[in-house]
Structures are given as structure tokens and as C-alpha cells.
Design a protein that fits this description.
Helices cover about 50% and strands about 15% of the residues. By secondary structure, it is an alpha/beta fold. The strands form two sheets. A seven-stranded mixed sheet has the order 1-9-8-2-5-3-4, with helices on both faces. Strands 6-7 form a two-stranded antiparallel sheet. α2 (about 30-45) runs antiparallel to α4, α3 (about 50-60) crosses α4 and α5 (about 95-100) packs across α7. The longest helix is centred in the N-terminal third of the chain and has 23 residues, at about 65-90. The protein is globular. The chain starts with 7 loop residues before the first helix and ends in a 23-residue tail after the last helix.
Length: about 300
């Protein structure tokens, strides 16, 4: 739940976060990016509960990997998160022409096709926490896409304000998950691109179970129902950081064909959630070091299944 009042420790944490943002904005870009990568590497070396969650996730997804392989992927993933933190903190500092140059796009024809086939021109984008996902919204807005993003609100009001302040610099509209339904429908009817992250755990009451790396994972049902209701094309889109650390590859995948007939509504929602999850798993298999492994993706489990954390 977003918007809770903060205690002294939380207020101190927000002040620290604001100080870090100020520091990252004051440094030359290369130094700031190097610092972000160093923070990620240090996090990987220190370990802790989040690192253990990542190792658990990797044991589920890639049971054939050795401990050494998991450690390498975790280090690269956290380096990417560190760099992404820097890019997020520095939103608005790059000229739009530089930002456009840093994002290489493939599969744009899939977006053009989806927009043409949409009853309103609106397109629903299914994405995941890959690469610099926060910077992606800013880059797509700089390219002229009318973008709106459904995001998960922070539990503490101070952090939520800080994150929203940074996001607003990018120009994309933001809808807080849980209260976004009406705005999301309007965005699609207005011909906008609605980006919906679909790779995080859902509470049982809000989700449906789908196979994810051979184990049930609970996916939010609301984005599925929204896509079915509006008949908007659903397009998987992912961003990958390139080896130089500052350029990015944006991959537009072919539209997902939703099941709209042939079963009751609950069955169709589950089937479409499976179809929307499948390209995320495929993308993680292609580039596992780009994904956010530190989230408890399998936290909600069906009855009879043991929680892995």
C-alpha cells in the first residue's frame, strides 16, 4: 500500500536516497555510471537476503547451472541495476537527440502493424524488469510515442514522491497499479501505448497461476482482463543493455494472439496470462543477466506447493 506515513528510520532513508540522487546528478556521466556498476558489484560480493532470493530464483529457472554460473549472472545483473539507478537518477540530463541515439530499435514494424490493427490505435505493451527499464519509458517518449506506464506504488510515501518526481521528468504518464483501470482504458482508447510490467508476483486474490520455468507463478489478472476488454493488440517489448554499458537495444516482438473465445472467462484469462508470460520467460532464457533476479517471483504458490523462500 502506497502513501504510509514514515517513521524516523524511513525518513532518514528518503533523505539518504535524495542525497544519492543529488550526488549522481552532480558527477560526470562516466564517473556516475562507473560508481553505479561498482555499487552493483559490491552488492553481489556482500550477499544478503536479496542475493539469496536471486540464487533461489536461478536454482528454479536454471537447475543445471553451477554455483559459479549463478554468481556470475547475479554480479552482471546487479551491475546493470546499479547503472540503471544512475540513469534513473539522471533522467532529463541528456539531450533528446543523445537519448534517441543511445537506444537502438529492432522490430519497429511490429509496433506499426499493431497500431494499424488496433480498433483505437492504442497498443498494450507487455514488458519486464530488463536492462534499464525506467530509462526505456523516457527514451520512447523522446521518440514521440504517447506512452503511459502502469507502475507498482512504493509502500512509503517519501520514496513514492521521489520516484514520481524522477519519472515525471521523462514525460510519460504514470498510473499507480491498483487504481489504474479507468485511466488505462482511457489511454488505450486515446491511441496511446500502455506499458504494463508483467514479471512480478501477484497476491492470490489478484492473480492467476501460470507456468513459469516449470513452476507455478502468480500473475496479475488485471492487465489480461484489460487487454481482453479493449481488444488492444498486446506487444512484448524488452530493453537490453549493450556491452559498452551506455547503449541499449530495444526489441519489439510480434503481437501476442489472445484467446477471446472457446471457454469461460476464467479459463480465457488464465490462458491469456500464460501467453503473456511465455515471451518473458523466453527473453530471460536469451539474456538472463539482464533480468531483475532479486524479486520473489514465486512467492505466491498454489495449495499444496511449498514456497521456495
Amino acid at each position: 500500500m502506497a502513501g504510509l506515513d514514515s517513521g524516523p528510520a524511513e525518513r532518514l532513508g528518503v533523505l539518504g536516497a535524495r542525497a544519492l540522487v543529488s550526488l549522481l546528478r552532480s558527477l560526470p556521466e562516466r564517473r556516475a555510471m562507473a560508481l553505479g556498476a561498482r555499487i552493483g558489484r559490491s552488492w553481489a560480493r556482500l550477499g544478503g537476503s536479496r542475493a539469496e532470493i536471486a540464487h533461489t530464483n536461478m536454482r528454479i529457472a536454471f537447475p543445471e547451472w553451477s554455483d559459479a554460473q549463478r554468481s556470475v549472472v547475479l554480479r552482471r545483473s546487479l551491475e546493470g541495476i546499479g547503472r540503471g539507478l544512475v540513469e534513473f537518477a539522471r533522467l532529463g540530463m541528456l539531450p533528446e537527440e543523445v537519448l534517441r541515439e543511445r537506444f537502438l530499435i529492432s522490430g519497429w514494424e511490429h509496433y506499426e502493424r499493431a497500431k494499424k490493427e488496433s480498433p483505437t490505435g492504442g497498443v498494450a505493451v507487455v514488458t519486464a524488469h530488463f536492462g534499464s527499464w525506467e530509462l526505456l519509458a523516457h527514451a520512447m517518449t523522446a521518440r514521440g510515442l504517447p506512452l503511459a506506464v502502469v507502475h507498482r506504488p512504493r509502500r512509503l510515501a517519501g520514496f513514492e514522491r521521489l520516484v514520481n518526481e524522477l519519472r515525471q521528468v521523462g514525460g510519460a504518464e504514470g498510473y499507480s497499479r491498483g487504481r489504474a483501470a479507468r485511466d488505462a482504458v482511457r489511454a488505450l482508447r486515446d491511441g496511446k501505448v500502455l506499458a504494463m510490467p508483467f514479471d512480478q508476483n501477484s497476491p492470490r486474490r489478484h492473480g492467476v497461476f501460470v507456468p513459469f520455468f516449470g513452476r507455478p507463478a502468480c500473475a496479475r489478472a488485471a492487465p489480461v482482463r484489460l487487454a481482453m476488454r479493449t481488444r488492444a493488440p498486446v506487444l512484448p517489448v524488452f530493453v537490453h543493455r549493450l556491452p559498452d554499458g551506455i547503449h541499449h537495444q530495444v526489441e519489439f516482438r510480434p503481437p501476442i494472439e489472445l484467446a477471446l473465445e472457446g471457454g469461460d472467462r476464467g479459463t480465457l484469462v488464465r490462458e491469456n496470462a500464460r501467453r503473456m508470460t511465455a515471451p518473458i520467460e523466453a527473453e530471460i532464457r536469451r539474456a538472463p543477466e539482464q533480468w531483475l533476479w532479486i524479486h520473489k517471483r514465486w512467492r505466491t504458490q498454489p495449495e499444496g506447493w511449498t514456497r521456495p523462500y
